[in-house]
Amino acid sequence: MAFPYSEKVMDHFMNPRNMGEIADADGVGTVGNPSCGDVMRLYIKVSDGLITDAKFKTFGCGAAIATSSMTTEMVKGKSVEEALQLSNQAVAEALDGLPSAKMHCSVLAEEALRAAIDDFKGKNKEAGKPDVVMDCCIRCEREEPKCDKGKNE
To answer: Which domains does the chain possess?
Structure first.
């Protein structure tokens, strides 16, 4: 059965952005869908509370690759908290839609991102660092290191 994919889906499938892995990733999330066989692994690099890099490795159909690619594009430069707000619907809309039978691919992409962020937060807790550095803390640390407003809120 052929699916009517948008030009954007086809572009991200044929020319995926950010494919690969980040060797020293701050967070890695792996999810899979046993019913269709798609498996996504998403890597993030975080600096000062911002996602500075994101890459993926996906085994799956064209929609799975396209949603992985689009997700990495959408989260680069966002704060960790902003990235957590990214929904599967937003990913599908950024690709100019997905056939209903392929919406589960956008759900996997959202889940992979959340898993990578959870991994990042878990590693920071183990290291005794706050899981999120608030925007106000980033500004305060640059201007006034003694400021403690917003930390760990």
So the answer is: 7-143 (3.90.1010.10)
pTM recorded for the entire structure = 0.81
Sign, CA dihedral 106-12-18-91, equals negative
Structure tokens at 134: 């608030």
What is the tens place of the pLDDT at every residue in 5-51?
Answer: 999 999 999 999 999 999 999 999 999 977 778 999 999 999 999 99
* Sign of the dihedral defined by the CA atoms of residues 16, 18, 23, 24, in that order: negative
What tokens does 52 get?
A: 């500075």
Q: How far apart are the first and last CA of the chain?
A: 49
Residue (of 67, 124, 52) closest to 97 by Cα position: 67
Annotated catalytic residues are 36, 105
Q: How far apart are CA 55 and CA 11, in angstroms?
A: 17
Q: Which two tokens stand for residue 18?
A: 């950010």
